[in-house]
Amino acid sequence: MKTFKGRFTQQESIPEEGIQRALEVLRSGRLHRYNVIEDEVSEVNLLESEFARYQGAKFCLACASGGYAMQVALTSFGLKHGEPVLTNAFTLSPVPGAICNAGGKPVLVETTDQLVIDLSDLEQKIESSGSRVLLLSHMRGHIADMDRMCQLLEKKGVQLIEDCAHTMGAAWGGKKSGSFGLAACFSTQTYKHINSGEGGFITTDDPELIARAIIRSGSYMLYDRHDASPEASYFTNIRLDTPNCSGRMDNLRAAILRPQLRILNENGRRWNERYRLIEEILSNAVGVTLPVRPHVEEYVGSSIQFLLMDMTEKQIKSVIRKCLDRGVELKWFGAPEPAGYTSRHDSWRYIESQTLPNTDRILSKMLDMRIPLTFSLDDCRLIGGIIMDCISEVRMN
């Protein structure tokens, strides 16, 4: 019986160019983004300009994490203490965490069987909550119908902030994820599409929002050292009215991210090659339901999700155990207890308890698996086969 010997947490090495530049930064001792010598442009400043160009955004701020980016985007939007913020019920805990840290009250929206936010429930929650803003999580890289969503939000007067932690490099209808709303937030945590251990970005075309974000991130009065920022007049009052909540990115992380950004599109192609191979194998497994990817969605398949709709909780646990015995790590977002990075909404006891029967039903049947680029295509064939074998074995018993 074949087993997989690889590691689901093993990422590819940082490109050699990034390693060499990081060594130069370390030798200089100038890791802080504002610690530059005459005529020097910091690595963080360069990265912000490059990421803004990549996204097609006017402005960009690099910061300490994706969670911090969401928090700062919400506060820079002008969120008031106790104000309701709409967001997905199916997401990772940093999303409701960012809302709470910004002083907001998370209002969770149901999930469809395609693993995206339910637009019908969203409309109802807009009406019942009176929220002014949706923090939309493109969870696990699945993009909702952005045309319908934007029409709904415009009709209701609700602003959109996108959490693109899992969709950096993805698009809907040829328009980049992160380009649909007032602002977008990205993550460069180790398991995301570019890797600095921790890190994040805010992008926007709104000069006042980014000016508040820059001051809040800890620029002091050094905001003129941001090239991907608005003109100085926008900072005249904002610099005195906005608190410093330091969360800057440093030059070391920026140095290792810049060469990764240049190969992001190629890496997206490689991820999708692996995703589609596993997807094709699992599509032939009895009882496996895979989300349907719309033709207008240009995704980056760095993970895969599938549902075992006719299996009991006991059977799903058995599939997970059998796969692990053969080296394949599956995560279960419907597990009654949080584990590792996965948790469901009823374990976030710092927010108000909410009834979400459809999300509960879907997550109780959904399994999730990372697809690192360190996996070869042969690895992916083996992994897909192991999952199929284990599902079949459980179904026969």
Supply the helix-strand structural class: alpha/beta
Report the CATH superfamily of the largest domain. Type I PLP-dependent aspartate aminotransferase-like (Major domain)
Q: Give the end-to-end Cα distance, rounded to a whole number of Å.
A: 18 Å
The counted number of beta strands is 13
Question: Given the structure, what is the number of helices?
Answer: 13
* Biggest β-sheet description: 7 strands, mixed
> Within the largest sheet, what's the order of strands?
1-9-8-5-4-2-3
From the 3D structure, determine the CATH topology of the largest domain: Aspartate Aminotransferase, domain 2
Question: How would you describe the shape?
Answer: globular
CATH architecture field of the largest domain: 3-Layer(aba) Sandwich
Low-pLDDT segments: none
Oligomer state of the chains in this structure: single chain
N-to-C SSE string, H for helix and E for strand = HHEHEHEHEHEEEEEHHHHEEHEHEH
Beta fraction: 5-15%
Instruction: State the helicity in percent bands.
Output: 25-40%
In the residues, how many domains can be counted?
Answer: 2
Radius of gyration: 21 Å
Please, what is the average pLDDT?
97
What does this molecule look like?
It is a single chain. By secondary structure, the chain is α/β, with parallel strands linked by helices. The protein has 2 domains: 16-262, 3-Layer(aba) Sandwich (Aspartate Aminotransferase, domain 2), CATH 3.40.640; 264-396, Aspartate Aminotransferase, domain 1, CATH 3.90.1150. It is built from 13 helices and 13 strands. The chain has helices spanning 16-28, 43-55, 66-77, 94-101, 119-129, 146-156, 207-216, 235-241, 251-262, 264-282, 313-325, 357-363, 377-396, and strands at 59-63, 84-88, 105-109, 133-137, 159-163, 171-172, 175-176, 183-187, 200-204, 297-298, 303-307, 331-332, 366-370. The strands form 3 sheets. The protein has a 7-stranded mixed beta sheet, with helices on both faces. It has a 3-stranded antiparallel beta sheet with strand order 7-6-10, with no helix packed on it. β6 and β7 form a beta hairpin. α2 (43-55) packs parallel to α9 and α11 (313-325) crosses α13.
